[in-house]
Inverse folding.
C-alpha cells in the first residue's frame, strides 16, 4: 500500500451524446510518502486529469483510486471535503488566487473553511508568506503582484492547512528561469525538510530535475517511469 | 466563520461596485415605495382616528338611522330619520346626558313690519336639546349668537333662535315674535331670543371642522332653531330625529351602554344604530387598510422587480466566479459554505437596498404627510415605528437572500473539477 494508488484507472469525457474523449486509458500509478514526482508529457496527454484524480477532486471512470489504502469512491462527500481541506494542497496552473482578497487573505482562505480562529490564521498566513519570501507583500492584491509572486502566494495557500500532499500544476510554466528556480527550491524543501509528498505536473526539465521520480504520459498512458538518482 | 463569509461576500460586492449599485437601486425603489405607502397609510389612519377620538371622547356615542353607517350603507333602504323617546333614553342605565336633533319643514310667518306686511314661507325647523348646545361642543363646535341674544336654557318653550339668513329674510330681530305652524293646525308664536353668528366667525376650532360639519347649527344659516320639546307641541311625538348624542355615566363601558341602548330603543320601535368611537375607528381601519392593501400590492410589484434584479446579478456573479468557486472547493469549502457566502452576498445587497429604501421612504412619507396635512388643515402624523423599520430591514435582507437562493444553490452544486477547468 502506497500513499496514492491508481490501478488501471481510465477517464472518459463525453462530448455531446456520441463523442467520447479518452483522457486516461488505464493507468497504474503508485506514489509513496515523501516522494517528489514529476509528471511530464505533451499537451493533452492527461496530466491535469491525472493530477485532479490524485488530488481527490475528480474520480476515474473505471479502475481504482485510493489514498492510504482507502478507495476514494467509498468516501462520502463530507470525508472528501475534509480530505481536500486538510490533507491535500493544490497549486494551480493559472494561480487561481481570489482577486478580491489580499495575499494574506488568500492564504487564510483554506483555514477559514476549517474554522480556524482569526488570530491563529493571520499568524500562520504571515509565517507562510515569510517562508515564500513575501512577508512584505501580505496586503497586496494579486493584481499588484508579479507572476512569480502570485505563484508563491499560491504555494503558501496550498500549505495553509499543512497538507501531506502538495500538487502543483505547471508551477513554473509562466515564469522566467530565475523565479522558477525559487519556486522549485521551495517545493523541494517541502519534501526534504517537511516530509511532504510533492507531485509536480510540468514541461520544464529544471522542474523534473528536482524530482525523485518522473512519470511520462502519452495519450492517456504511462509510457516511461524514471527513478532519478 | 460567518464573519469571514460576510467579509468574502462584501468583498465580492464592492469589487463589482457599478453592478452592485444598480442592483441595489432596483431593490431600494421597491422598498422606498413600500415604506412610504405603509407609513403614509398608517399616518392617515392614526390621524383620522385621532380626529374622531377628539370628537367622541371616551364616553360618547351617536344614534343614527339604522343602516346609514357601515358597509350596508348604500343599500338604499335606509331611512334618514327615526322615532325616538328621548325621556326613555335618558332613563336607560348608564346614560348620563342625551341630546337629540329633530327636523321638519314648517310654515313660518315673520314679524309684522312697519307697513303692516310680513314675510312668510316654508322653512326648515330644527329642534335642539338644550344639552346639545352646551354638552357636546366637540360635535357642534362652539355655538354663539350675535351680541344681544342668547341660546336656549332649560325651561324655554316659546322661543326661537334664527340662522343668519333666516333672520335677514324674515326681517326679524331679537325680541320679535314669529309664528310657526305645525301639523293639524297647531300653531305657536315664538319669541326670537338670538340670532346665530355666522359659522366662520369664531365657531369651532379648525381641527374638527371637517368632522362636525353639518352637525353644527352655526352652519345652517337658513334654519329656525327651537327647543327640542317645542317640536312635540307642533308636530307631536318625535319620529323625525336626525341624530342623537349620548354621554355615558363616568366609569360605564361606552360600548356596553351603546349596545343596551340600541337593543332597548329598537324594541320600542326606533330604527337606530348606536355608533361608538370604536365603530367609527373600525370602519376607518377597514377603509384605510383596504387602501393600504391596494397600495402595498403595487409596491409589491416594484419589490418583485427588484428581487428579479438581484437574482439576475447573482446568476451573473456565479457564472463569473465559477473558477473561484472551484478554487474554494478545492481548498476545502463545503457546499454549504459556498451556499452561505452567496446567500449573504445577495442578502447584503437586499439589506443595503432596504436601508436606503427605508430612509428614502420615510423622507417621502414625511413630505407627503406635510402636503396632505396642509390640504386637509390637520397635523398629520409621520409614522416611523421601530417595528416597521426592523421588519423592512429584515424583509429586504430576506428578499435579497431569497432571490439569491437559486443562483447560490447552483453555485454550491458545481462539481469541483468542472469549476476549476472553467475559463
Ligand atoms: N471537461 C472535459 N471535457 C472533455 N474533454 C476534456 C475535459 N477535460 C479534459 N479533456 C480532454 O482530456 C484530455 C486530457 O486533458 P488534460 O487537461 O488532462 O491534458 P494536459 O496533459 O493537462 O494538457 P496541458 O499540458 O495542455 O495542460 C485532453 O484531450 C482534453 O481535451
Ligand atoms: Mg494541464
Amino acid at each position: 500500500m502506497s500513499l496514492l494508488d491508481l490501478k488501471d484507472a481510465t477517464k472518459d469525457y463525453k462530448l455531446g451524446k456520441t463523442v467520447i474523449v479518452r483522457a486516461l486509458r488505464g493507468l497504474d500509478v503508485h506514489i509513496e510518502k515523501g516522494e517528489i514526482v514529476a509528471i511530464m508529457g505533451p499537451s493533452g496527454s492527461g496530466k491535469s486529469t491525472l493530477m485532479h484524480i490524485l488530488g481527490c477532486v475528480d474520480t476515474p471512470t473505471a479502475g481504482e483510486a485510493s489514498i492510504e489504502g482507502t478507495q476514494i469512491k467509498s468516501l462520502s462527500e463530507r470525508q472528501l471535503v475534509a480530505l481536500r481541506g486538510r490533507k491535500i494542497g493544490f497549486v494551480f496552473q493559472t494561480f487561481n488566487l481570489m482577486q478580491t482578497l489580499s495575499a494574506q487573505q488568500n492564504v487564510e482562505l483554506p483555514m477559514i473553511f476549517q474554522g480556524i480562529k482569526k488570530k491563529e490564521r493571520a499568524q500562520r498566513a504571515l509565517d507562510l508568506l515569510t517562508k515564500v519570501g513575501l512577508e512584505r507583500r501580505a496586503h497586496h492584491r494579486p493584481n499588484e503582484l508579479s507572476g512569480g509572486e502570485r505563484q508563491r502566494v499560491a504555494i503558501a495557500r496550498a500549505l495553509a492547512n499543512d497538507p501531506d500532499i502538495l500538487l502543483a500544476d505547471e508551477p513554473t510554466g509562466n515564469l522566467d528561469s530565475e523565479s522558477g528556480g525559487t519556486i522549485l527550491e521551495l517545493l523541494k524543501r517541502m519534501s526534504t525538510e517537511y516530509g511532504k509528498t510533492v507531485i509536480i505536473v510540468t514541461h520544464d526539465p529544471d522542474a523534473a530535475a528536482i524530482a525523485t521520480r518522473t512519470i511520462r504520459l502519452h495519450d492517456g498512458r504511462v509510457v516511461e517511469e524514471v527513478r532519478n538518482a | 466563520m460567518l464573519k469571514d463569509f460576510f467579509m468574502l461576500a462584501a468583498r465580492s460586492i464592492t469589487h463589482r461596485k457599478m453592478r452592485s449599485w444598480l442592483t441595489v437601486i432596483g431593490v431600494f425603489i421597491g422598498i422606498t415605495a413600500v415604506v412610504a405607502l405603509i407609513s403614509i397609510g398608517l399616518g392617515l389612519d392614526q390621524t383620522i382616528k385621532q380626529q374622531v377620538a377628539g370628537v367622541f371622547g371616551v364616553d360618547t356615542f351617536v344614534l343614527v338611522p339604522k343602516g346609514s353607517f357601515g358597509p350596508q350603507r348604500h343599500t338604499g333602504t335606509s331611512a334618514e330619520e327615526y322615532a325616538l323617546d328621548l325621556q326613555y333614553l335618558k332613563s336607560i342605565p348608564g346614560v348620563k346626558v342625551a341630546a337629540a336633533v329633530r327636523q321638519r319643514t314648517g310654515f313660518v310667518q315673520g314679524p309684522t313690519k312697519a307697513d303692516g306686511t310680513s314675510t312668510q314661507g316654508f322653512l326648515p325647523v330644527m329642534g335642539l336639546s338644550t344639552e346639545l348646545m352646551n354638552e357636546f361642543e366637540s360635535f357642534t363646535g362652539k355655538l354663539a349668537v350675535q351680541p344681544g341674544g342668547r341660546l336656549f336654557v332649560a325651561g324655554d318653550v316659546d322661543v326661537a333662535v334664527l340662522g343668519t339668513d333666516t333672520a335677514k329674510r324674515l326681517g326679524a330681530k331679537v325680541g320679535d315674535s314669529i309664528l310657526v305652524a305645525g301639523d293639524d293646525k297647531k300653531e305657536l308664536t315664538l319669541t326670537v331670543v338670538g340670532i346665530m353668528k355666522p359659522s366662520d366667525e369664531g365657531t369651532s376650532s379648525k381641527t374638527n371642522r371637517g368632522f362636525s360639519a353639518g352637525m353644527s347649527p352655526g352652519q345652517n344659516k337658513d334654519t329656525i332653531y327651537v327647543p327640542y320639546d317645542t317640536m312635540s307641541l307642533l308636530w307631536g311625538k318625535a319620529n323625525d330625529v336626525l341624530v342623537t348624542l349620548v354621554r355615558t355615566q363616568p366609569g360605564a363601558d361606552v360600548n356596553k351602554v351603546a349596545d343596551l341602548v340600541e337593543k332597548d330603543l329598537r324594541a320600542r320601535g326606533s330604527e337606530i344604530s348606536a355608533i361608538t368611537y370604536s365603530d367609527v375607528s373600525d370602519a376607518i381601519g377597514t377603509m384605510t387598510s383596504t387602501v393600504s392593501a391596494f397600495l402595498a400590492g403595487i409596491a409589491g410589484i416594484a419589490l418583485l422587480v427588484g428581487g428579479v434584479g438581484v437574482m439576475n446579478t447573482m446568476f451573473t456573479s456565479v457564472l463569473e466566479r465559477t473558477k473561484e468557486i472551484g478554487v474554494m472547493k478545492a481548498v476545502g469549502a463545503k457546499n454549504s459554505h459556498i451556499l452561505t457566502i452567496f446567500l449573504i452576498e445577495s442578502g447584503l445587497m437586499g439589506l443595503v437596498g432596504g436601508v436606503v429604501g427605508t430612509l428614502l421612504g420615510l423622507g417621502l412619507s414625511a413630505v407627503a404627510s406635510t402636503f396632505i396635512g396642509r390640504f386637509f388643515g390637520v397635523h398629520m402624523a409621520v409614522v416611523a415605528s421601530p417595528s416597521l423599520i426592523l421588519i423592512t430591514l429584515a424583509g429586504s435582507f430576506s428578499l435579497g437572500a431569497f432571490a439569491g437562493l437559486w443562483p447560490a444553490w447552483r453555485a454550491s452544486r458545481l462539481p469541483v473539477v468542472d469549476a476549476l477547468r472553467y475559463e
Notes: The mean pLDDT of chain A is 91.
